[in-house]
Amino acid sequence: MAESRATLAAFGVQVAPLRRRTARTYLGRVLVHPYNLLVVGSVLLLSFIGWSPLLLLLGLGAELVILCVVPWRGYFRRSIDAQLDEADRAAWSRARECLIRQMDIRHQQELARLDRLIDRTRENIRRRGGAVPLLLEDGFGLSRLLMSYIRLAIAHKAGQESLAMTNHSELMETIRSLEAIRSASAGRTRGLSERRLSIAYRRAECWSRTREGLEVVSQKLATILELIQLMHEQSMTPVDSPATCAEIDRFMRELDGFDTGESAQRELEELDMDMDRAFELEELEAEPTQHSRPMRLVAR
Fold first, then answer.
1. Core vs surface per residue 77-86: b (16+ CB within 10 A) or e
2. How many Å apart are CA 41 and CA 20, to the nearest integer?
């Protein structure tokens, strides 16, 4: 964050300095706290209405106890730290917006896309059950990388504006005409043409350096964009969990055992059905035999 604030200061953006959290900070917060002001005001009002010095002394004693106890309590310090952090983040966001407005529209859109990619990367890592690395936390690696992107985008816009102010073809035509004048003139005219020609050479050299610098800045901007895209794509890569494979194998074994039990049950049922059919056939065969014996006796 300190490095980012230095970058903002280099671009002329005023950012409130980070406040040191000392004992005086927490004492001041206790003094201006609404509840404390309400207690102090009530005691003063009651003491003046009743002209009671004792009540005033009791109120001052209670105030001293509050000032000696409350600033050192953990819950109070955590609350004050949260408020100070929120104020610092708000100041930082306002200063960052001032810088973003100095960028080109295309780079502003790319920066908004990068912010979305970083948020999705954090969500993907949390969804997979992992801890978000410090590199992705606010104020650490990627925040500094985004500040570098903003700084480069502003420099890129300034370079483009500088190139747009110079017509390179006209400048080269001026150089050629000055060279012709220098070769054809003499005396003071030749000296003045040489001076103008020297300035034109420097302008051409500056234009070439600016164009080369723009190309370098464009490559750096593209590198930052591709790096953040790579991190986002890596966060979306599916993870093969050994526990899931073991769970699948366990269910397969239980399913095989369940199928084996069903097969054995079906075999037993089929065996019972075969035995029932056999008994029925024996009974059917036995019935004609019993009926045929009396008929033979009657015939004799």
1. beebeeeeee
2. 30
* Predicted local distance difference test score (pLDDT) of residue 224: 92
What's the rounded Cα separation, in Å, for the pair 283 and 276? 11
Place of tokens 């009396």: 294
126: Cβ–Cβ under 8 A, 6 or more apart, which residues? 132
Give the residue ranges of the chain where pLDDT is below 50.
Answer: 1, 3, 10-11, 17, 139, 290-300
Of residues 98, 96, 128, 102, the one with CA closest to residue 235: 128
Cβ atoms of residues 122 and 132 within 8 Å: yes
Using a cut of 0.90, tell me whether the model's pTM lies above it: no
Q: How many CB atoms lie within 10 A of CB 68?
A: 11
CA-CA distance, 150 to 108, in Å (whole number)?
A: 9
CA distance 10 to 8: 5
**Which residue do the tokens 């001076």 mark?**
195
CA-to-CA distance for 217 and 239, rounded, in angstroms? Answer: 36
Cβ pair 186, 251 in contact under 8 A: no
The answer to whether residues 88 and 18 touch, using CB atoms and an 8 Å cutoff, is yes
Per-residue pLDDT of 245-256, as tens digits, reads 676 667 666 666
Phi, psi angles (nearest 5°) of residue 241: -90, 125
**Residue 263, token pair as written in the block:** 């097969």
**Whether 11 contacts 48, CB under 8 Å:** no
Mean pLDDT score of the chain: 75
User: Would you state the structure tokens that stand for residue 260, as one six-digit string?
Assistant: 């084996």
